[in-house]
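Hey, resending since the last one bounced:
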Amino acid sequence: MPKPLSALRELSARLPLPFRVLYRHFLLRVVDLEALSVEADVTGFLGQFAGVLIMVSLVHAFVAVIYFLVTPQDQPAFAWRLAQYLISTTMLATGLFAVISWDSTFPDRRDVLVLLPMPVAPRTLLLAKAAASSALLAGAIFALNVASGVLWPVALSQHGLARAFAAYWIAMIASTVFLYGSVLAVQGFAAFLFSRGLYLRISAFLQLAAFAVFLGVYFLLPPIPSSAAMADPQNHWRLIWWPCYWFFALFCQLNGSLPESASWLAWWAWIALGVASLGAIASLLLCYARTMHKTVEEPDLVASGRRPSALHFGSRLQTAIVLFCLRCLLRSRQHRVIFSFYLGAGFALALLCVRDDIGLAQRPLSMGFLIATYVMMSFAVIGLRSTFSLPVLLAANWVLRATQLSPAERYIAATRRSLLLFAVAPVWIVSAAGSLAFVPRLHATAHLLLLALLGSILTDINLLGFAKVPFTCSYLPGKSNVQFSFWVFLLLFIPLAMLGAYYELRVLEHGWQFFYLLAGLGAIAYGLWAWNRREARSAVLYFDEVPPEEIMKLGLL
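The structure tokens again:
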């Protein structure tokens, strides 16, 4: 065994046994264990996300090699822009990790009830949780920079390779610590100041707001074109409000490429890093010393005293399933965040597509707007369908098993109605509101008809083989390959969306061609609906995900 690994193992063996046990347990608690199938492989699920980050890093490194071989004359300007992009991408990954792992560093009700009666000191629980979260975050950032963090310092070096390498990794680590520490500080002080029930409500909105801010800043923030623009006094007010610029200036300072007149911006990064670190430490200490008892003593939910809802969405069964889905999305932070993750990603990409159209009125339909509506509709339907796969409380699904008095096709029809109401309809309404800025109105109306058919098609495609009640079936990580989905979206969905938008703009000018397109999409939508309805008649509802059985041949004969 190599000496560094053996030394690391000896060091870990000296740590207290409770810390080591809790640390290994909390590493796998990034996903709610009670929502998983008994056959779940959490490590494989996390490994898929690591694979996506490594592939992104390899793409960054490949771009570096190709660009510097093809256009060596533009190396300084390109390296300047790409350094900002890499720091922004690292901060985005940190922000998304902080949103997804929201509250994972703080003790929940299960931790307090199970661990505190045991001889486990609160500081051990604190250190184990903090170490587990830090290890997962460090692994994600390392995977994102594993290749680009080696090649890009070579391209960015101006006063020696070693200095550029150190500057790159110090800037990445500092930006990660600042952003994650800021999120922890906000969470901790909110938990300290508010009651448990109020904190949970505020925390959910803070989580969604943080997610929207991280994505919006990443896609809409313009880069600094040159060092002269960074030193220009007219840009000071823009630079001072965005932390991405602070840590880019920090990298330039450490690399020796920062103008003297912009050194104040790097000091903002150092100050922000210190404040965020102290705030995170103080919030964690306050939480574990003063607010841990709130987790047990104060209820998470308080009865509102309102009358039952008078809304109706069809039959009694359909109304019950639709209201069940609505209340799960409103009350469950885990499901709301997952769905918001898809909605936020789709909205951010839509903003990127229509960025050039913002502020313009009464203009013809653009490809950017059409692509934006395709993206939002696809992300909304796929996101809600993915959210349906996670149970709210797996131990309570015996109620539905025992009360299944109607055929399975009625449950599946109610699920389809929920997708149409909570995914397709909101996106269509937002798209209709956005289409008011375009002329002629006939083209905008025609696009809305096509968008409605697209929503119906996506809904029925996502319901193929979905023979279960939403939020009641255990989840099997790894069943949907994250890496495969990522590259399908990048290499297949985006070109198809661009091709579809280009073709739609053409046929909108010719009435008969548009009618043929509308009829074709209508036939596809009807065919998928009829197929799902026929399959639902013989479907059997299931409540536990199990991996498919594999039969291997030994080849002895």
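Residues 316-537 form one domain.

Sorry for the duplicate.
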